[in-house]
Amino acid sequence: MCPSAKVESFRSLLNLSPAMSGGGHLKSPWSRRKRKRALAPQQWRGFFTPEGKLRDGGVKFLKKVRSGGVDPSIRAEVWPFLLGVYELNSSKEERDCIRNQKRREYESLRRDCRRLLKRNGTFKMKETGGMGSDGEGNITEGTDSPDYEDVVTARESLSSEDRCTYIEDSDNPGGTDEFSKRVMEPNDVSDSESSDSDSSADPDISQTVPSAESMDENTAEVAEVTSKEDSSPSKTEVSSRPCSAEDFGTWQRIIRLDAIRANAEWITYSPSQAVVSESRAHRFAEAVGLKDYEHLEPPRILHAARLVSILEAYALYDPEIGYCQGMSDLLSPIITVMTEDHEAFWCFVGFMKKARHNFRLDEVGIRRQLNIISKIIKHKDSHLYRHLEKLQAEDCFFVYRMVVVLFRRELTFEQTLCIWEVMWADQAAIRAGIGKSAWSRIRLRAPPTDDLLLYAIAASVLQRRKQIIEKYSSMDEILRECQSMAGQLDVWKLLDDAHDLVVTLHEKI
């Protein structure tokens, strides 16, 4: 099977429902014997100086998260540091300024989303099932929406030759308004308040759930992150390519389909959102133009509306990526923890600084990661690798879904948060320039790596080497085995094995 055919085949996995023992000679901070408790509230607050700065540049803080994760009660405070929303060396005063600035930036993006939703008006669908036009340049979509499985990603459904920049403004025919500037230059975010009538729109859109006092210090600023690997797509900054009305109209449609189908596993982790009233949930849904949600309970309606609000804003913020199926899987845990949309948005932006290459049309990021997993398996277990070669599966496309949505569908909700926190701690250390020497001083022998998740994915395959070698004679059988991992993995043993692989293979890979 050619690589392009494999890509198309494995993309469909996103529509599906969801011999290693860590016995290396170096002890892992994640081993059952060594694993410590999660970062607790009292310990978290003790890391700060009177000026509100993390002591020792955040090294001990990251060490603690790396070895035990974060207590659920303080995740909303801690995650902005892990995701680059706050610099590790920032003061309380600096974070207060950032919070106000980034709140305005998010609200500006949301005003632009509401303007575009108004312009597109009532959606109608052409008889051919494609995106139509009302004759004035506005995208139209019908009431008979296609089945979820038939919806392709916005980027795949559009021809680059047919894309045209949308600069019409029925409210301002004499020139471009601030929204049109956003469409033309999506990264030029103004801090000024818009004079548009939407500036007084329902505040529920930009601040969904009333914040607790403990969340007041959370802000949203995105640290600029570039990869050390010149060839890596993660080096690509947010594109300056204009966003067309056709792009955005398609993204809106797919976002709404995905939002309505989001499951309810998060509810027990967010009591404040789980008790939302029906009237309030419906108000949020109407404010973002959500439809066909009457069958959902109020918490799921609220969740879907928040997904729509933030994913639409991200599509404008990063039009090169826009929206692709699977991104809602990554955002869902974040909005469960972060109860204000502007904070959740900037945490998601920080997350996507590394994850966005998973959703690029050229697939370069996915192929790079699959290649690393293949190399890990080859160096660690040549016998297993030779068996994969016989099955023409050495390219490891059978773990495609794990890579795209970062284990989200193979782990439980709580397990997902744990492994992501450990991964984010590694990435935060790299951003802050905390290298191998710093880790050795705090008795963690393996250096942080941007690719920890790939080592964990390789570990999940190596843990099943016996079944794969003895029982499976085709890549389809291996694929089914990987699918069956859902809910069956021990996340801390997985991290223990991943750490062992980092210790022994990181330099080679």
TrEMBL record:
Name under which the protein is recorded: GTPase-activating protein gyp7-like isoform X3
Source species of the chain: Nicotiana sylvestris (Wood tobacco)
Residues covered by the Rab-GAP TBC domain: 69-427
PANTHER family, per the entry: OS08G0547200 PROTEIN (PTHR22957:SF507), TBC1 DOMAIN FAMILY MEMBER GTPASE-ACTIVATING PROTEIN (PTHR22957)
GO MF assignments: GTPase activator activity
Biased composition (Acidic residues): 188-201
Matching InterPro entries: Rab-GAP-TBC_dom (IPR000195), Rab-GAP_TBC_sf (IPR035969)
SUPFAM superfamilies given in the database record: Ypt/Rab-GAP domain of gyp1p
Region annotated Disordered, chain positions: 124-243
Biased composition annotated in UniProt, kind: Polar residues: 233-242
PROSITE patterns in UniProt: TBC_RABGAP
SMART domains: TBC (SM00164)
Gene behind this protein: LOC104244632
